[in-house]
Amino acid sequence: xxxxxxxxxxxxxxxxxxxxxxxxxxxxxxxxxxxxxxxxxxxxxxxxxxxxxxxxxxxxxxxxxxxxxxxxx
Length: 73
Hints:
Helices cover about 45% and strands about 0% of the residues. By secondary structure, the protein is mainly α. It has a single domain (about 20-70), classed as Serine Threonine Protein Phosphatase 5, Tetratricopeptide repeat (Alpha Horseshoe). Helix 1 (about 20-25) runs antiparallel to helix 2 (about 30-35), helix 1 (about 20-25) runs parallel beside helix 3 and helix 3 runs antiparallel to helix 4 (about 60-70).
């Protein structure tokens, strides 16, 4: 709904995390895919220097982490 209303896909939280990083960290692959389709940048890093792929890997979402790494190239 927010994306349909023009929400910015790369907006950052106070700790520098983007919606894609949060989706990756929670393992919500569908949300991550949708954010990528809407233009989310998988190369961005949080304030801790972590990418969306890093968040997915830390959460044990290896397939999603590989997909995000591939999207970062």
